[in-house]
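Could someone model FE2/S2 (inorganic) cluster with this protein?
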Amino acid sequence: MLNKKAQCFIDSSITMLPPFIQQRQKRVAQVMQHASGDKRFKILEAHMKRYQYRADALIEVLHKAQGLFGYLDHDLLLFIAYRLKVPTSRVYGVATFYHFFTLKPQGRHTCVICLGTACYVKGANRILAAVQTLTKLRAGETTPDQQISLLTARCLGACSLAPAVVYDGTVAPFQTSETAVEQLKGWLQHGS
Ligand code: FES
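Reply:
Sure, complex below.
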């Protein structure tokens, strides 16, 4: 327990912090309070603990967080930054650099078109164009009814299957504009 003098000193130190840091601290406190009542945060916390809250486990932690929450919103990134003791800017940097992370809610279905070199030379750009025409989406967008999200990736690590597209988490090999459009038409028609 701190004595009165020490507590006074800490309180006055906080109020002396620049306003934007005070604001951040306040937001972190709110997120932590919210996190205490959400089971998913508990699972995420256990995951971070397994990595001993190491900063170099950031990608694994983000991956787990996206699996639990579906996407990475600001509060979630703030929580991770706070727990791993890394700057929020770094967490944002990693989350926005990798294509498999998303900062927005995803649709019910996701279509990830690989635009890595092997897929690109085999016509991935034509697949993307056909899907964009059909869905009226640009890469990174979701249909207004939240049915389909269209994403692109740099390389899925399945170059021998190029051009590859991931439909709802399953890699489909040797895709064409026709096969992709057929798949998405099915989603659009059935809504499931
Ligand atoms: S470039 Fe598409 S899977 Fe590697």
